[in-house]
Amino acid sequence: MCSKLIAKTPEFLYNTRMVSIQKDVSLKDFSNYKIGGPAKYFLEVSNLDELIEGFIQWEKISKALPIFVLGAGTNLLIGDRGFGGLVIHNKIKDIKILSEKDTKSQRIKESKSQRIRVGAGVLMEDLLNFCVQNCLSGLEWAGGLPGTVGGAVRGNAGAFGGEIKDGVYQVESVSTYEVSEAAASQVRKQVRKRKNSECKFRYRSSIFKDGEGKNEIIISVELKLQKGDKDLITKQIEEKIEYRKNRHPLEYPNIGSIFKNIFIEKVPQKLLEQLKDSIKDDPFPILPTAKLLAVAGLKGKKVGGAMVSQKHPNFIVNLDNATFRDVLDLIREVKSLIYKKYQIELEEEITVF
Question: Taking residues 142-157, what's their average pLDDT?
């Protein structure tokens, strides 16, 4: 039973500590792959005030170097040379249950839905635990999904027929372009709020990944979930976690699925007929790339310390101190072999930088 929703203090509203931009920070330890060189500059923020302070400091360091936003380091291949600009590590981690006053709704008490605001740095695992505690349904499909809420929104993460876009009501973000000290006080006014339709969600993408919002850092995400049964929510989440444990190579460093699944319209008819029993909704008809790679005999293929997983061939695992080049060369070889054999162009789901 969930008799009362468990609210958390929204610490991302307050400045709690001084922040400082560090130099030459190794990104290897921030990568699920355990691959990556140093960031020339590195900033960790846990609320909007710290981000503003970081912008002020950054303005004094550079007006030209690029900025990259880092979450949990999943779905991300980092170069051995590192990054020559500023890496902002987003650790805005608080969750707030929204009331009638917050949402300006007069019917939230009577409704079966509940809106919550989630910091972009919240791990999906922690969000799901929060949902279980508060009997909130709608994200069960994400059981076992790695990464942060911000990362999930940026790439419109999905599994088991569900996608994060299905629960998104609104996203708050701010541009990572230079902000002078004089203008820093205006940053709060520059926070952009986009409703779901404005986020331009697509298959494993959004406006924040491939559109005009790609130079913005997501601050928080407002989700609209449904009130449900705690035991059923728990059961469905645990089923997804167990599935991942059994089917995914979690025993090795990895960054999840390397390639997007394939729209059936892009699959040659003869191959489609051969693999028709493998077609699934994700959330529309696709051919799982893992199935295609298995049929092509690519399980276990290696380049250096990187290997196509025997357990799930859409994962490339760090088997033996793989380098960035090992992984990148293996990705290219797999794409080339699949195109030569089936005339299908695989598209990466991961981000490479």
Answer: 98
